[in-house]
Design brief:
Layout (H helix, E strand, L loop, with lengths): L1 H21 L3 H31 L8 E3 L1 H19 L2 E6 L7 E3 L1 H17 L5 E9 L8 E10 L33 H11 L3 E7 L3 E13 L8 H5 L12 E5 L3 H10 L6 E5 L2 H11 L3 E5 L7 H10 L8 E5 L4 H10 L2 E4 L4 H9 L12 H5 L6 H13 L1 H7 L2 H17 L4 H15 L3 H8 L2 H8 L9
């Protein structure tokens, strides 16, 4: 059902977005905006229904990952900034300074919870303010590696009658008092919040005073502090710029049995320097990969004949294409299927997707043309290392570098970067080596094979500058 609903929504939202960008007549742009806004509202309803169904069927999975709560706060603040401006509301986000740099929590579901609560606050607040506060404290057990994480959303809206404070978390119940027609929704948002918080071993409650506002409290009592730093949210890197021409020119193969879906990608990339290749099924995709050698593949998963999984398996059997980035494109909302796709494909994007989401996924595999060049002057001016560090660097170059360069396995590249960082930190300041490590980690975190190759290609020259003519000595 999800697949059948999301596939046409991909065309509705995608082409509406393109049409809005092409129109110059304000009246026609207004019509396109209405279609786009209505389509997004419909998609939110679809997502809410599917999420609630998955939760109640026990199909919703919670995935812990290193999360930067400050980045979450910045993301939420940016999302509602324009809405606050248009509604003339004071909008603020406060994240406690004493929170750890990273905690283990399901970032996607945490964002979903906060988005629902803040969205409700804006919906029922006509004047005054909306506030988001994220804080933490040590729990009663005094376990130093864990905190009690609290999220508060405060508004000065219409308030909730006391007798409804428990009912509002049930499906199809409206939160606000005497909800106006323009603020009425499906009543699913808070029901989803309640169930997600429960799945994450937390608790949610509300305090409200009619005519003065409402505060929602969400508390997660056992959130583990992560020793691993969060890699950063992809939104932070691509929302500022959506120029596809900033990405290195590439041959992009789009595989989909639906002509409309191929036309959408074709239209998005029409005025860019990228070359678009197309295939209507899995068998044709394998042939085009062998013949045209694309830089990245957007592969629909459900196709008649050879489906996306089978086409990927055929491509991986071909010499020279074992590391070709193949991004799964699917309309499924099942969490177990999503997990399976992430394990087998290089990337994952779900229909309906926007220009921004397509850009973000491609940017993980196509480096920006200027990024690496900016690092070269710093490395070119690098001074030789002392004898001990130079010896360690030469040893690393002889023992590990050939395997890392030829294999390009993300785990090996990360370990290589870690070993280089240890050398950079043990001796006097070495900005050239630190810059190299930073670029290598950035490429690895993005799982961009082409960028890893580009960074590693600089290593032999860097060696000659940092350890020139330095014979390896036994330690």
């Amino acid at each position: 059902m999800s697949h059948e609903i999301r596939t046409p929504m991909n065309a509705i939202l995608g082409f509406s977005e393109i049409l809005r960008g092409e129109l110059r007549d304000e009246r026609l742009r207004g019509f396109a905006d209405s279609v786009l806004m209505s389509g997004r509202s419909l998609l939110r309803l679809i997502n809410d229904v599917l999420d609630l169904s998955k939760i109640e069927a026990g199909r919703m999975e919670i995935r812990l990952e290193a999360t930067d709560l400050r980045a979450v706060g910045r993301f939420i603040e940016r999302i509602f900034a324009q809405q606050a401006k248009e509604a003339a509301l004071h909008w603020s986000v406060a994240v406690a300074e004493d929170l750890p740099p990273s905690v283990l929590i399901d970032e996607l579901r945490l964002r979903q919870i906060i988005l629902n609560l803040v969205g409700n606050a804006f919906k029922f607040t006509r004047a005054g303010s909306v506030e988001l506060i994220i804080s933490g404290r040590r729990g009663a057990t005094e376990v130093r590696s864990r905190i009690v994480l609290t999220v508060e959303v405060r508004d000065t809206g219409s308030g909730i009658p006391p007798e409804k404070l428990q009912e509002i978390f049930e499906p199809f119940v409206q939160a606000g008092a005497n909800a106006r027609a323009e603020t009425r929704g499906t009543g699913l948002g808070l029901a989803i919040v309640k169930r997600l918080v429960g799945l994450m071993d937390g608790d949610v409650r509300a305090e409200s005073e009619l005519g003065r506002g409402t505060t929602f409290f969400v508390e997660f009592p056992e959130v583990e502090i992560s020793s691993r730093l969060a890699t950063g949210s992809r939104e932070d890197s691509w929302t500022e710029a959506l120029d596809f021409n900033e990405l290195r020119a590439a041959r992009i193969l789009v595989v989909d049995d639906n002509e409309t879906n191929r036309e959408l990608v074709r239209s998005i990339l029409a005025r860019t320097h990228h070359r678009l290749l197309e295939a209507g099924d899995g068998r044709e995709a394998v042939s085009r990969v062998l013949r045209d050698r694309p830089d990245v593949v957007l592969m629909d998963v459900r196709m008649p004949g050879l489906n996306g999984h089978e086409a990927l398996a055929e491509i991986r059997k071909c010499t020279g294409f074992e590391l070709l980035p193949v991004i799964a494109v699917t309309a499924s909302s099942l969490s177990d299927e999503e997990q399976n796709l992430r394990e087998h494909f290089s990337g994952y994007i779900r229909k309906p997707f926007s220009r921004a989401e397509l850009y973000a996924e491609l940017a993980a595999f196509l480096p920006r043309e200027t990024r690496l060049a900016e690092s070269v002057p710093e490395e070119a001016s690098a001074l030789p290392l002392p004898a001990a560090e130079a010896n360690r660097l030469r040893r690393l170059a002889q023992s590990d570098f050939p395997r890392v360069r030829d294999g390009l396995a993300a785990k090996d590249v990360r370990e290589f970067a870690q070993a280089l960082e240890a050398i950079a930190e043990s001796g006097p300041g070495c900005p050239g080596l630190r810059r190299f490590v930073s670029d290598l980690r950035q490429a690895t975190d993005a799982f961009s094979v082409s960028e890893m190759e580009s960074v590693l290609a600089r290593f032999p020259d860097l060696i000659e500058r940092l350890a020139p003519d330095h014979p390896v000595q036994d330690e």
